[in-house]
């Protein structure tokens, strides 16, 4: 009888333990008020909770609350410090060569289409670079624009003598090709650098500018005129610790799988596209000066930055990748999915 009671007690304890929800630690570098958390992570977390009968739940840690710096996020996911991170592969220069192609100048026209292209590039070329991680999404941001405090920028010569912040290795190469001095730094450091004059300007999409209150400390904004491709974009990933994913039940894995991939990537890109007009309006309302870079001037920008792609193909080919095919596919897919 006693053995039976003990067995029943153990079985009850086991059932109770199995009923405990899995709490996923989700880390990123943006403030909690940013689009990334409010319009992407929070709805995504609510959806996986609902579809898993609350056996999957998120605890979101914005603004690097788990410690470390933005470039360390990807390693935090691999090491299990965080279960899921949202970050830039480009913050760790050279670590993810396969996905850098999405950051070459004048590649994408919009974030939704560019994000679909990014996921397909990952599927075809990128998986070996992300060992230890389960990619949930790859996306790009809305059209990258030029912002500075020195002068209006409408042609390549206007970059001469400027110190410009850029987020990744390839955007730094692009800035240098345009004649400015690139200053590499993660996005959270940018407002302080602008306010102290460490940099004269920066390249960023519209969504980020008011999130970081940069429109309050910037005089001039220069935009590549559609339908020309945007000047540049930055690649982001939402990635999960592979061991954490492997530890989930089959039902929980199905929920994660159903809420990751190409459609999730495109939805994030669409959210960034849709955010741009309202973000831009905040700079307009302050009376900041706007300049449009038309087709004739864009040709000069494209010529000045063409060698960035040429050099990239040579670099990754030397590392064993098919750089020419990767560039061709990124260009083809980006054009195919462009709105």
Helical fraction: 40-55%
Helix/strand class: alpha/beta
Elements, N to C (H/E): HEHEHEHEEEHEHEHEEHHHEHH
Strand order of the largest sheet: 7-6-8-5-9-11
| Rg over alpha carbons | 22 Å
Biggest sheet record:
6 strands, mixed
Low-confidence stretches: 1-18
Oligomerization status of the protein chains: single chain
Count of individual beta strands:
11
The portion of residues forming beta strands comes to 15-25%
Shape: globular
Termini Cα gap? 71 Å
Number of continuous helical runs:
12
What is the topology?
Layout: H1 2-19, E1 22-28, H2 35-51, E2 56-61, H3 73-79, E3 84-87, H4 111-126, E4 133-140, E5 144-148, E6 163-166, H5 169-177, E7 181-184, H6 190-195, E8 201-205, H7 208-211, E9 220-224, E10 235-241, H8 242-246, H9 250-258, H10 262-285, E11 289-293, H11 295-318, H12 323-337
Parallel strand pairs: 1-2, 1-3, 6-7, 6-8, 9-11
Antiparallel strand pairs: 3-10, 4-10, 5-8, 5-9
